[in-house]
Amino acid sequence: MKRALYPGRFQPFHKGHLHAVEYILKDFEEIIIAVMAAQNNFTLDDPFTAGERIWMIRESLKNYIDKIIVIPILNIENNFPWLSNLKSFTPPFDVIFSNHPLIKILCEKEGFEVREIPFLKREEYIGRKIRELMINDKNWQEFLPEPVVNVIYKINGIERIKKLMEKDVI
Amino acid sequence: MKRALYPGRFQPFHKGHLHAVEYILKDFEEIIIAVMAAQNNFTLDDPFTAGERIWMIRESLKNYIDKIIVIPILNIENNFPWLSNLKSFTPPFDVIFSNHPLIKILCEKEGFEVREIPFLKREEYIGRKIRELMINDKNWQEFLPEPVVNVIYKINGIERIKKLMEKDVI
Amino acid sequence: MKRALYPGRFQPFHKGHLHAVEYILKDFEEIIIAVMAAQNNFTLDDPFTAGERIWMIRESLKNYIDKIIVIPILNIENNFPWLSNLKSFTPPFDVIFSNHPLIKILCEKEGFEVREIPFLKREEYIGRKIRELMINDKNWQEFLPEPVVNVIYKINGIERIKKLMEKDVI
Amino acid sequence: MKRALYPGRFQPFHKGHLHAVEYILKDFEEIIIAVMAAQNNFTLDDPFTAGERIWMIRESLKNYIDKIIVIPILNIENNFPWLSNLKSFTPPFDVIFSNHPLIKILCEKEGFEVREIPFLKREEYIGRKIRELMINDKNWQEFLPEPVVNVIYKINGIERIKKLMEKDVI
Amino acid sequence: MKRALYPGRFQPFHKGHLHAVEYILKDFEEIIIAVMAAQNNFTLDDPFTAGERIWMIRESLKNYIDKIIVIPILNIENNFPWLSNLKSFTPPFDVIFSNHPLIKILCEKEGFEVREIPFLKREEYIGRKIRELMINDKNWQEFLPEPVVNVIYKINGIERIKKLMEKDVI
Amino acid sequence: MKRALYPGRFQPFHKGHLHAVEYILKDFEEIIIAVMAAQNNFTLDDPFTAGERIWMIRESLKNYIDKIIVIPILNIENNFPWLSNLKSFTPPFDVIFSNHPLIKILCEKEGFEVREIPFLKREEYIGRKIRELMINDKNWQEFLPEPVVNVIYKINGIERIKKLMEKDVI
Fold first, then answer.
1. In this prediction, does ipTM exceed 0.90?
2. Chain A touching partners, 3 or more CB pairs below 8 A
3. Would you tell me which of A24, B16, B50, E160 could form a disulfide with B38, CB atoms 3.0–4.6 Å apart?
């Protein structure tokens, strides 16, 4: 059994993430999707809870449901034991897929393999840009798998993000 | 018994806050004043300890002393359970008074009522502006209830804020 | 202004505590009642939330309402800075009243005065014993100020304690 | 879509747990299995990591793989916001299945439904007893789904538990 | 350069510990002495602060002062990343010396070497026993290096331990 | 015995720090070097672990090895008990040497003496500037004691800092 781990914040889970999962599943039997910064929610950068992100991911990956393991991971302050802390919350895995420089460096010091992800439309499929489209009532829907769009409607996600934008002058 | 909760950082407690308390006490028998970010102190944004803020508030509200309950609340990282965490530290309350978008959204998702506060001189009675007046030796005193001015003198608050302004080039 | 601090867990606030407060108020103008272990609740040793304990205390001390300041204090793991941590959450105080050996030793090392409390009926007014009476449907009411009894009824406190007694065989 | 949540420590996941899952799946389309005390591991009471427990559960429930969502939940010190904290890490759910008195009381105060589980062979299928059988080289295998037995062999689980039993006389 | 790490709570640092350090220094150029449970103090099991323990150790090892590195390490709740967390607070080391089963198992799973320590008078040189001698005014001094005895006198350590023994009947 | 404490982040330990240590050792028999923000590492502002910083400091101070005590100190959120928390992790000391305004104010409120350090070449010997030289392959080496340069080469420190500079467009 070969298992890969794919970490991300998934705020929200978009078509670039979906593409990455499908890319990884070509070579691996199972993929652990690690929902990072799991304790963060209801902020402009992290509007969705870990539970909502898990929900989005499962709904988008119904076709691969027996191959995915979605696990929330809380951020810790001390970066150095990042990989060891992560391992305590997941089944064993062989490779990490990530383009994130910090993750690469934290794994390489442990001799653990990290592989690049050939992201789809890298300049468009970016969580931050999609959140900005949401705030401005632009076409955010086209960047997300349809089930994610549905979850966002169910939880009134657009209204939430717009409210989080408002500043109170206290 | 009808009880309202009024959350704020109160850095420091100013006449706008006093006005809000008096406004709420027209309709409620008791008011819980929640001193938020209670663990923060001796920073430029949060110069006063929770204890000092509680002191300022009590001294300013001597006339209403049997109607106020002042409780420090520590910030937690996970926003979602904000209301439930808050409730564990206070007597029961019926309504929250706040203009803060995040507080509104975190309460509304629980079906808990949040009411607006018609703030007095909204552009002047702002903690950050008052702290800037302190740093520049301007007329900060006129924005604060007199007992707050006295507490600030007793704790050498102006000197503290000015020192916190200094940057050390390390 | 002379202010004393009186720390306790107050699970629940009983007549011995009430007696202690009245004793201290003979010599001090204000008393800070520090509700310790404030984050603990819904356990056999700590059944009541900090908020419920604050409520009990206020209701029992209506006659002294302008002289009391009730403040929840969270336990911290490192004992050594206990006094300094406490001070950050309260207005300034001159003396601590406590018979607790750890509190005495942690204050004495800082040169801070701790005074003994001549407790009333020391063998009867004990939180743990009163909680046992509650579990066994015995006369727990007589050991508590009447307003505390009322709060416990309002929050279904006896039912809570009995349920916490049940063990699940998992 | 009707979704239930089933919390447990699963140290390890045994046939009683499996039976409970199958019982719940008769009435619900999806089940969230919440792996509690997720940060605890390598102790006598909690020998297996959250990741290992998730692994055991998935391997045992291959037949229901599209119906289960397994999520690690870290214990928090403040019991009161237990339900709200839990909700931030999971998709929405309608009912909690648990016989645990604390969980029942923490949910009932929020008006959230908790249902009993008719456990199979309640006196035998108990994590603690099974861990004792492991220490004494008795027939622990018969109480566990075969995939759990396999995981325990792969991670040298029996050796781990026996070593954790040893006391060092320091 | 060959460096070993020797973890312990050192409550207090006794002749058995001293013997272990000397044993290790026969084969290693430097030894890192990790003062574990560093945040614990002023309890019966952990009466001395990390700082006091560091002081005792340095005073006892004046002859080896260029070969020892004494570092306090705070306990973390998640055992699994114990070794990785430890490494973030110390210079690199080649071997750990410990007889503690948990430490052995946590290092072995990482493929990191742990060696046994041939303790001196194992049944006598035990922190817990020495603390009991202190409480009972017995000959605790003979089990400790003389500089440790002196530090304990300077900090009124015996009085502290006796006071921590007293129970308050609250 | 007169002992001074010198706190700093030492990212990395440079010639200005070395000069400060030598300045302090003129008047004090021992110096405690407190490595602050000890849990921070692998970030642009705090690239080196506490352990690596302790290593750099020891290697640079071989000539004073019997006079220095290097202790990592984790940052805490509540600033007020900073001094008391610090004291729990170190042997006793008489004076703190620091130019940092926050440290000065936090000590002065406790009546604890803080002395200024006459820094060498204040505009050049600055951690942030040296880290920028590293990123740009400029002459960072000349600002560091040679043993620090060697440690940085051994841990591939320059490569680490450059990688931490890279931003991933997620």
1. yes
2. B, D, E, F
3. B50
